[in-house]
Design a protein that fits this description.
With about 450 residues, the chain is of the alpha/beta class. It contains 18 helices and 12 strands. The chain has a 6-stranded parallel beta sheet with strand order 3-2-1-4-5-6, sandwiched between helices. It has a 3-stranded antiparallel beta sheet with strand order 7-8-9. Helix 1 links the parallel strand 1 and strand 2.
């Protein structure tokens, strides 16, 4: 049975769900799960949870905990990474606010825009150090990445190390939820009226998850593009194989105009449905930051509530701490939603073939018109032979150009940070859809580097 290393095990977003699903896997009984987190308090809590549940559920796993990844990586078969430079919410807010003084308002500031540059840059050295140590300590292991910006950091590992990397993301669920809402009257899906937005608000989570679950059961989406920037190429009935795209298109038009208005307009113009939902889609489009037009108001592009989510995460950890103390399970532990790591590990370990609908892997001809070393998100097959993406051919020219621009900006970002090259960094920002002035790009870069100096020493040597 394999050795599985979980980096950033104290992450509530991905670490806990991954841990719970790994523990529950009967296929992986006998495996070692090595938990790693540099935050001692989070590590102790996660380890206590894992050890308790391992006994309580009779999982048959060996649990170890480590404050350094170097202590855990030896002979690992899989390394699951959910690391993030902390404090996440405060730094994200800093990235968003940094551009405001230059008259630029980012749509979201997490994965695209100058915020996406800063977010990726902060994590480069940590991720590359892990990859370098994997080359020495577990050269045949797979790195399964959950950390954003997904395609930037997977490109980093693929381009600058010999480590095999795959990125996993659950954003395709937003596409299933929206498709199910549009087709609810046809298929009898329940809860369509309660699902009013894909926006990152706690009130939206359950209605969206309910619609997504129903959609996944009956519908089959084929999507391709970049992470958080994918497009629905096909929509079929899982049972009959019927092409549902024309029906979906008609039913989508009947939904209220206020439901995902940006997605609605992009679908109408480009004639392919964008999967991510408005708040992720907006980061990669060049028409949403004009301070006079204020497109964020027109499309109701609300920001991530940084304070709320920081507080909610702390409250969730307190719940976990209380349940360990009382030795009594709470709701969030009973039915964890897999992020995909356990299915991928089971398939690679046993050799059983698995079709997965959203894999972030090197392009190598999977999407025509994009560089071979671009990290694209496509469906594919997992088996004992490894991971094989499904070629999707040529996308419409306009969409391909939008994707290509993001690929170039993201690769220049990573190349600039690895090399400590300010000129490449300016080029990356000038290709970004948010930035429209050379002088402003230079000022923004100077602020990004200075505010993140502790994580980016290569720019100051």
């Amino acid at each position: 049975m394999p050795k599985i290393v979980c980096l950033g095990a104290g992450s509530f977003s991905f670490g806990i769900s991954t841990l719970l699903t790994l523990l529950k896997s009967s296929v992986l009984r006998g495996s070692e799960i090595a938990l790693v987190d540099i935050n001692a308090e989070s590590l102790d809590l996660t380890a206590s949870l894992a050890e308790w549940l391992n006994r309580s559920w009779d999982c048959g796993k060996t649990i170890t905990s480590h404050s350094s990844h170097k202590d855990a990586l030896a002979n690992a078969d899989y390394v699951v990474s959910a690391i993030e430079v902390q404090p996440r919410e405060r730094l994200w807010q800093q990235d968003f606010e940094l551009t405001l003084k230059y008259g630029l308002r980012q749509p979201y500031g997490e994965n695209g825009g100058p915020g996406g540059f800063a977010h990726a840059a902060r994590n480069v050295n940590a991720v590359l150090n892990i990859a370098r140590d994997m080359e020495q300590l577990c050269p045949n292991a797979w790195l399964i990445n959950f950390t954003n910006p997904m395609h930037r950091l997977c490109y980093l590992v693929n381009q600058y190390s010999r480590v095999r990397v795959v990125g996993l993301c659950h954003q395709l669920a937003a596409g299933y939820a929206m498709a199910a809402k549009a087709l609810a009257g046809i298929y009898g899906f329940q809860g369509a009226e309660a699902f009013v937005s894909t926006h990152a608000d706690p009130s939206n989570h359950y209605p969206m998850a309910e619609m997504a679950a129903q959609g996944m059961q009956r519908l089959k989406i084929t999507a391709a593009g970049l992470n958080h920037f994918t497009w629905m190429l096909a929509l079929r009935d899982r049972q009959t194989g019927e092409d549902l795209y024309p029906l979906f298109h008609r039913e989508w038009k009947k939904l209220p105009d206020a439901f995902e208005p940006l997605t609605r307009e992009i679908f109408e113009i480009f004639n392919l449905f964008p999967i991510p939902g408005d708040e992720h889609l907006d980061e990669y489009l060049p028409w949403l930051t004009n301070p006079q037009r204020k497109a964020w108001e027109k499309y109701d592009l609300s920001l991530y509530n940084w304070e709320l989510y920081a507080r909610l995460r702390d409250e969730q950890w307190q719940q976990v701490s209380d349940c360990i103390r009382r030795q009594k399970e709470i709701e969030i532990l009973k039915d964890p939603v897999s992020e995909g790591a356990v299915e991928l590990i089971e398939s690679l370990t046993t050799g059983s073939e698995l079709y997965w609908e959203a894999l972030n892997i090197p392009n190598n001809g999977l999407i025509e018109g994009l560089p071979a070393n671009a990290i694209v998100e496509v469906p594919g097959t997992i088996s004992s032979r490894g991971i094989t993406g499904e070629p999707v051919g040529k996308l419409p020219q306009g969409i391909t150009e939008l994707l290509h621009r993001e690929v170039s900006a993201s690769q220049l970002c990573i190349d600039a940070v690895v090399q400590g090259d300010r000129n490449l960094a300016v080029q990356s920002l000038l290709l970004d859809p948010v930035v429209d002035d050379i002088g402003t790009a230079r000022l923004i870069l100077a602020d990004i580097l200075e505010s993140n100096r502790q994580w980016l020493p290569q720019f100051f040597d």
